[in-house]
Amino acid sequence: MSVQQLFFVVFALITIFSALMVVSLRNLLHSALWLIMALLGVASIFAILEASFFAAVQILVYIGAIAILIIFAVMLTHNIMSVAETQTNRSWGIALVMVVIIFFIIITQISTWPGFNTRLQALNIPGQDAVLAFGTGLVDPQGFALPFETASVLLLAALLGGVFIAFDQRREKKS
Amino acid sequence: MIPLSWYLILAAILFLLGLYGAMVRKNSIAILMGVELMLNAVNINILAFWHYHSQVNGAIEINGMVFAAIVVIAAAAEAAVALAIIISVFRNNKSIVAADMNTLKG
After folding, report:
1. What is the ipTM of this complex?
2. Are the beta carbons of B33 and A35 closer than 8 angstroms?
3. pLDDT at position B46
4. Residue A146, domain extent
5. Rounded-to-integer distance, Cα B91 and Cα A12, Å
6. What residues form DSSP beta bridges with B27?
7. What contacts 24+ positions apart, CB below 8 Å, involve B83-86?
8. Do B55 and A121 touch (CB under 8 A)?
9. Do the Cβ atoms of B53 and B64 come closer than 8 Å?
10. CB pairs under 8 A between A and B
C-alpha cells in the first residue's frame, strides 16, 4: 500500500466514523461538532482528488457557513428535546436493514462497470490551470455563464426567503 | 494511485449514512445534518468522476467542476431556507420534532 493510499484510508475512516457519530449521538450539539469533523474529512478527500479549489470551498462554505448556521439553530432551539429521551423514531430497525440492502445493491451494480477499478493517476496540472479553466468556463457565454447567473439569482432568492420566513411579524406589530 | 472504486464505495457509505440519519431522526435539525452528509457524498462522486474523465481525456474537464459548484450553491441555499423555516416553526409551535409539524395536514 502506497503512502497516498494510506492517507486516503485514514481520511476515509475519519469521515465515516464522524458521519456515524452524526447520525447516532443523542446530544445534538455534539453531532453538529462531529459534522464539522466529517466535512473536514471530505475536504481532505477533495484535496487527495487534486480538486484543491473544492477543498478550499468545502472548508469556507460548509464549515465556515453551514456548520456554524446549524450550530446556531441547535443553540436557539436548545432545551426542546432532552438528551435523555430517544432521538430516533420507531422505524430505525427497518431503516437500517434498508440502508444495508441498498448498499449491497449499489456495490454489485457499479462493480459490473469495466472502469470500476481504474487507478487514478496524478493529473499533473501545471500551476493554477484547473482553477483558471474553471473560472473562464463559468463566465464564458459558450460555457456556463447562464447556470452561473441562475445560481446567483437562486442565492439571492434564498437570502430574501430566509429573512422573510424567519422574520417575526407578530412581535413587530406589537411594538 | 488510488483506485476509483475506493472513492465510489466511500461515497456510497457516506450517502447511506446520511440517508439513515434523514429517515430515522426525530429532530428536524438532525434531519438537515443527514441531508448535508448526502450532498457531500454526491460531491465526492462528482469530483472522482471529474478526475477520471480528465485522466482519460488527457485535458482538464470543467463540466464536473461546474456540477460540483452548483451542488455547493444549492446546499448553501437549502441550509439557509431550511434553518429559517425551523426557527419560524419553533417560534410558532415550540417544537422542532418533525412528527409534530402537521398543521398543513388535512
Report:
1. 0.91
2. yes
3. 94
4. 127-175
5. 39
6. B97
7. B83/A69, B83/A70, B83/A72, B83/A73, B83/A162, B83/B29, B83/B32, B84/A161, B84/A162, B84/A163, B84/A165, B84/A166, B85/A165, B86/A73, B86/A77, B86/B28, B86/B29, B86/B32
8. yes
9. yes
10. 244
Q: Give the chain B residue nearest A59 (alpha carbons).
A: B72
Residue A10 shares a structural domain with residue A76: yes
Say if A10 is an interface residue toward chain B (CB within 8 Å): no
Taking CB atoms and an 8 Å limit, are B65 and A157 in contact across chains?
A: no
B4-41 confidence digits (pLDDT tens): 999 999 999 999 999 999 999 888 899 999 999 999 99
Q: Is the pLDDT of residue B77 over 70?
A: yes
Residues A5 and A72 in one domain: yes
Is residue A67 one of the residues assigned to a domain? yes
For A113, the grid coordinates are 462497470
- pLDDT tens digits, one per residue of B87-97: 888 888 888 88
Contact list in A for residue B10 (CB cut-off 8 A) is: 12, 15-16, 45
Domain CATH number, residue A67: 1.20.120.1200
Predicted local distance difference test score (pLDDT) of residue B19: 94
> Is A122 part of any domain?
no
The answer to whether A165 and B85 have CB atoms below 8 angstroms apart is yes
Burial of A124 per CB tally in 10 Å (0-12, 13-18, 19+): exposed
Instruction: Give mean pLDDT in consecutive 10-residue pieces for chain A, a chain of 175 residues.
Output: 90 95 89 94 93 91 91 81 72 92 94 86 79 88 90 94 83 63
Nearest to A88 among B25, B44, B78 (CB): B25
pLDDT computed for residue A175 by the predictor? 56
DSSP symbol at A78? T
